[in-house]
């Protein structure tokens, strides 16, 4: 994986000192809160309901054991002994004191980490496929391109005061494991017929209050023009994105209002101009970065394993993913224990994940946008040992992509924007389905919960989505069906009137019942919904 | 009066040029396009800096107004002007604060007339925040500043 050189290290250290100085000027009264707010946001510091929250960047979701241990130490030293992994492949600490923030950033910089641009109206942490560099189906490892974009977007002088936040995702497989087309810019690295590597670029996707699927705006940008093209996309957005209304300021509104063709025309014009200016890093830079993402020293070994223990067999079937080397798999560390808080991990659990990475995964870990962790390169022969350790630590729930693998935002338990709680609902739904034993029968079923219209819990992209709203002072939940963030991307549709907390849990059971009764061989919930439409579900819910 | 729009030389707090500051009245972008002799113009956030490109030869001062520091359109305006070869004074005016100075400088601004005078020490530190930079920007073009990637692969 990527390692900082002295330049990268100096940049992060300069940022820590800059933030220390900003905090000092705030305390001296030289900065008003309005002036300080965007500065602290660009260092990951939010004010939540009860305390400050610090969001630490995990670029493209990749980290090593030493970094994970540092995250555990921060949880113990500055928080309450745990952290929350997010849908942006980052980690958030919910109980931070403002006066500790600069020290935490300094601790992070010692392990090549930071909280740069994890919030604010700037280019955010670049996300990617959590199986990048390991998956059997990828064209090439997408992370070098993500790292190139990370460096370009860090402290970008022109794009630090954009109309609104800006999120990139970079993948390099047909299968989309990163919700690529629901990003401001989604990039799929591809090979053309001549075997050259380039980027398919999608622009103007997003969730939030106006969900949009990003249209394709360029089918092939040569990789040695990728930064120039990104710069053109951002410049058009910075100049013409709406600034009169923050709810209409994302690039998806610009692309929608102009039309994809007109936005693309403007980008192409700017791109042609910028090619003549020369903003692309030297070609050798991508090669330098890519060299650091070389394969670890895989060794041949057994391709099968004794699955006579049914608990192990279930976990191995559900929580592992096919690797490009046939003696290895990627193993998912579940942060979704039945009745638990999705994405939360204690400091001790983080240390166990770090130890397993060192022992069994070439010192590498990944964060998934589904709020789980991954050991990307595990020898098939080592799976029983890995499973036993995870199971003992409460991280062995065999539920990846099942109805228990719920994405949920922090909701009204933490967030000042929320209208309703998400966490208790996720806990109760996973408990209910575990208790009835329906989880296995349902197979792949992605349930996503957001506590407000901002959609941090990706409810628009859930096979089943739940949106918490405030209805005359009480929490109310809208149910939606048919969303997907994968390569078959679609936006979920609302079933009808909302429910109270008990009602929405019953409603989830009802719609799963409709599915089980109607499905044909091999159909997922999503497939059945697409085939039979909303009516049978509505009939069962409200009929 | 439209030609009293601009800032005067004594309102300029930081200037990175050796020539004498011009003391013309500054006109709006529309007026600049209509008038054949205007030598100083002020760009508002909603203005398209590119309409000025035919007139760059006669312009000695371009002010870019930041009515609020959070509106970043002026950064693009500045780079567009420098990319087009404008070498006259490019002045950031309005809600210009300490923590925006280093980025503004990199986008090609070479003078600064903040609404409220800034602390000299804080500003000096802000201008010097980044010893190295990741991106090519106006400073690459104007001063040949090498980026980190350039330095990694030089020679």
Topology:
The complex is a heterodimer of chains A (543) and B (155).
Chain A (H helix, E strand, L loop, with lengths): L5 H22 L5 H9 L3 E3 L4 E5 L5 E3 H14 L3 E4 L5 E6 L4 H9 L17 E2 L14 H11 L14 E4 L13 E7 L5 E7 L12 E7 L3 H15 L10 H8 L1 H18 L5 H9 L18 H9 L1 E3 L5 E6 L10 E3 H14 L3 E4 L5 E7 L3 H10 L14 E2 L14 H14 L1 H5 L4 E4 L13 E8 L2 E8 L11 E2 L6 H18 L6 H8 L2 H8 L1
Parallel strand pairs in A: 6-7, 7-8, 16-17, 17-18
Antiparallel strand pairs in A: 1-2, 2-5, 3-14, 4-5, 4-13, 8-9, 9-10, 11-12, 12-15, 14-15, 18-19, 19-20
Chain B lengths: L13 E2 L11 E2 H6 L5 E4 L17 E6 L6 H11 L5 E6 L6 H6 L4 E4 L5 H8 L10 H6 L4 H5 L3
Parallel strand pairs in B: 2-3, 3-4, 4-5, 5-6
Antiparallel strand pairs in B: 1-6
Structural account:
The complex is a heterodimer of chains A (543) and B (155). Chain A is built from 17 helices and 20 strands. By secondary structure, chain A is an alpha+beta fold. Chain A has four domains: 104 residues, Alpha-Beta Plaits, CATH 3.30.70; 149 residues, Sulfite Reductase Hemoprotein, domain 1, CATH 3.30.413.10; 83 residues, no CATH class; 136 residues, Sulfite Reductase Hemoprotein, domain 1. In chain A, the strands form four sheets. A five-stranded antiparallel beta sheet of chain A has the order 1-2-5-4-13. A five-stranded antiparallel beta sheet of chain A has the order 3-14-15-12-11. In chain A, strand 11 and strand 12 form a beta hairpin. The longest helix of chain A is centred in the N-terminal third of the chain and has 22 residues. The radius of gyration of chain A is 23 Å and the shape is globular. The N and C termini of chain A lie far apart (55 Å). Chain B has 155 residues and is α/β, with parallel strands linked by helices. Chain B has one domain: Rossmann fold. Helices cover 27% and strands 15% of the residues of chain B. The longest helix of chain B is centred in the middle third of the chain and has 11 residues. Chain B is globular. Chain B starts with 13 loop residues before the first strand and ends with a helix. Classes of the chains: A alpha+beta (543), B alpha/beta (155).
